[in-house]
Structure formats: structure tokens, C-alpha cells
């Protein structure tokens, strides 16, 4: 959750970060390590929560960082909130 702001933080990362009191720390290289009972090496992330708390923003950043690491990713966006151009 970025904060309780109703309006969008789209493209205002610095302002959102300065206003945030709920940090999310994550290392996508370690997410699937040492998980007892796991059957595969595939990493799965599910983000749930109330409306307007930063789920799309957070997942967009995770997806971006994974793409920088040249990871194979699948981004399912049923509301079609993101637009990507294939190059």
C-alpha cells in the first residue's frame, strides 16, 4: 500500500515514495529459495488487497525488475490497465 491517497500515483514514483509509510522489501532472486515442500523452481506471485492501495503499481515494478534480469515472465492483466508495445 502506498498510502491512503485516492488519486493515482502513476508516473510519480518519487512523490509516492516520499509519501509512503508502508515499504515493501523484496528480492526476486530469493523468493523461491528454501521453500519447504516446493515441487518446481517456478516463482509465482499473487497480490491481493483493497481498491487503490498500490497493487498494480507494485506488480508493475516487480515485472519491470524481472525484465531487467531477462527473466521469462507472464503478466496477466484482466482489466487491461497496462499497455505494452511489442518491439
Automatic annotation (TrEMBL):
Superkingdom assignment: Bacteria
Pfam families on file: AAA_10 (PF12846)
InterPro entries per the UniProt record, alphabetical: P-loop_NTPase
Protein name as it appears in the record: Uncharacterized protein
Amino acid at each position: 500500500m502506498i498510502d491512503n491517497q485516492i488519486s493515482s500515483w502513476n508516473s510519480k514514483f518519487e512523490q509516492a515514495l516520499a509519501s509512503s509509510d508502508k515499504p515493501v522489501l523484496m528480492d526476486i532472486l530469493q523468493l523461491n529459495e528454501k521453500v519447504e515442500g516446493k515441487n518446481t523452481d517456478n516463482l509465482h506471485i499473487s497480490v491481493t488487497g483493497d481498491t487503490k492501495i498500490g497493487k498494480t503499481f507494485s506488480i508493475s515494478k516487480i515485472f519491470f525488475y524481472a525484465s531487467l534480469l531477462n527473466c521469462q515472465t507472464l503478466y496477466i492483466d484482466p482489466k487491461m490497465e497496462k499497455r505494452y508495445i511489442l518491439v
